[in-house]
Amino acid sequence: MKKQSMERRTMDKREERQRAVVRDLRFGVMRIVVVIALLYVLFTYVLTIRVMDSEDMSPAVAMHDLCFFYRLPETLHASDVVLYRRDGLFMVGRIVAGPGDIVEVNGHLRVNGSTILEPRIYQTTPEYEGGVDYPVVLGEDEYFMLGDRREGAADSRYYGPIRKEEIEGILITLFRRQGL
Question: How does DSSP assign 46-109, residue by residue?
Fold first, then answer.
């Protein structure tokens, strides 16, 4: 009788360990599923990551920099660097004018009749042949984008104003990847 009791206790301990392992495994799998779901929501609806694939925003954002964009900005302001879609392509540019503004480009940037001083822009802002006609009056929910590398950047001088729904996010941080 004692032998049966010891065997039963041994089996109970073994079963308890097995139940504990299964419980811990389920808990671990649930944690992994929750983390994956949170990362999916975070990188699908809140943030997006892009590698800069042109020199249009140089030197502020260099080619191959890893850029993080916040997809839910409430407001957009002049000087914000944004990710936007144009003709099926993702592009990065700086907002220089917003809804209701009047933009002129003639070697310099003029917004609402005032020349905009841009201390971090090292080139003139040429008008593109075959681009938009100036002055450009921005409508409701329209923004005028320029690349920081003003000579040759694909931006609103060529495409025209960008609508708010084309803007995918605002740059919140970047990681330099040169030399990696």
Answer: IEEEEE--SSTTTTTS-TT-EEEEES--S---TT-EEEEEETTEEEEEEEEE-TT-EEEESBSE
Are 161 and 76 within 8 A, CB to CB? no
At 19 the pLDDT is 87
For residue 131, name the pLDDT band (cuts at 50, 70, 90): confident
Distance in angstroms (rounded) separating the CA atoms of residues 46 and 61: 21
Tell which residue, 169, 116, 165, 105, has the closest CA to residue 139. Answer: 165
Q: pLDDT tens for residues 134-168?
A: 999 999 999 999 999 988 899 999 999 999 999 99
* Residues facing 66 on adjacent strands: 51, 175
Report the distance separating Cα 145 and Cα 155, nearest Å: 6
Average of per-residue pLDDT across 33-38: 96
Q: What's the DSSP call for residue 114?
A: E
Q: Residues in the chain, how many?
A: 180
Taking the whole predicted model, whether its pTM rises above 0.70 is answered as yes
Answer CATH for 52-175 from 3.30.420.40, 2.10.109.10, 2.60.120.260, 2.130.10.10: 2.10.109.10
